[in-house]
Amino acid sequence: MVKASEICRGFECRINFPDGISKVLVPERMSQSRVCRGSHGFVKKLLSKFWGLNKETWNLAMNEPKKLIHGFKVGMALSLVSLFYYMKPLYEGIGGNAMWAVLTVIVVFEYTVGATLSKCLNKAAGTFLAGVLGIGVHWIARQFGQKFEPVILQGSVCIISAAATFSRFIPSIKAQFDYGVLVFILTICFITVSGYRVENLLELALHRLSTIAIGSSICILTSMLFCPVWAGNELHNLIRNNMEKLADSLDGCIAQYFGCDINSNNTQSETSNNILLGYKCVLDSRDTEESLANFARWEPAHRGFNFGHPWKEYLKVGASLRSCAYCIKALNCTIDSGAQGPDILKNHFSKCCIKLSSNSSAVLKELVVVMDTMTKSPKIDFKVSEMCSAVQEVQNALKALSKQPIANPTIISLTEVIPLVTLSSLLIEIAGITGKIAKDVNGFANKA
């Protein structure tokens, strides 16, 4: 008898139903091969993602080794605080509360010294205040007798927690003491609720405070003594690098628009990358600047940054840089729109616009030198005056546009003139913002 597999080999087996519908019979071996191919594709995709993750991790470690070192610093701090469990004399000194020291290290150890100091001091202050207030509430509650003690404790927890939670919405408290208020709420609840069943509440509070002090001290020492990452230095470098990026981005935009190469060693792809990476990095840096400035206020003097360094001035400069970045973004959008105007108009404006762009980027690059030395550059006033004269030339070109034959509406339409007028106006706006940045940088350089 002939087997079904032999009949179907090389042929298509089909079943016809009475209603006119037909189906193709698929051999079982074919379905198994599909499962194998699907499993092979899944494993291949999984391995590809794993390889991509390894590659991303390796690139991050090579490009930013400080983050890799930070991981080892956290491990070192946890190893040191774990000695309070492994060494019997230390364990007997603080008892089973040693785990609070371990948890403190995990929670408060941050990337920068300022962030670590901020969290440690907030945690210590919040715990201390909550401990004192909690013991006071317990003493008052016990004066009313055992019957009313739970009522007074619960009422105090409700009122104190509500007031502390509401204070977190106050901008000045949220900016610097939000974590401390959160720890305060946690500790007041811990002492008020669990202390009801504890005989020696003072001892419990002292043990809690001592373990937090131990964990915070280890975090601060490890963060400051082993390859410290200062928030102030990170903020300074961020503002400095943003100035360089904006200068390169501005040069790249004008070079792309007028079809010239301001820096002869740049290729077309490098110019496009400078345009995109330049202003986009500046636009996305606001939150980072604010957090670094907040943490820098907690740090001691370091690397030439003395006590009372004007960290708030960096935020003003950063805001001005973002305003300049928005103008460059609008400039880039004007270029990408394709409406660039006729060549005769571009030739008319190219010289003065390129000069203004070069002078504005030269001022930004000179401000980078001011940031490096923290002293006013003798060249900055001359470069700013050159930029102002270039602004005047562009303004004169705009005024003369309506009087020139090239602007005759019978020859060139208004829509063809608008792109160049927009470009010139944006360059004048960028020059004005650059002058403000120069004034701000020189101002806080003198304060520093």
From TrEMBL:
Q: Where are the transmembrane segments?
A: 68-86, 98-117, 124-145, 151-170, 177-197, 209-231
Does the keyword RNA-binding belong to this entry? no
Instruction: Identify its membrane topology class.
Output: Multi-pass membrane protein
Key words, A-Z: Ion channel, Ion transport, Membrane, Transmembrane, Transmembrane helix, Transport
* Annotated compartments: Membrane
Spell out the Pfam families in the cross-references.
Answer: ALMT
Please verify whether the record's keywords include S-adenosyl-L-methionine: no
Entry's family note: Belongs to the aromatic acid exporter (TC 2.A.85) family.
Record-given protein name:
Aluminum-activated malate transporter
Organism classification: Eukaryota, Viridiplantae, Streptophyta, Embryophyta, Tracheophyta
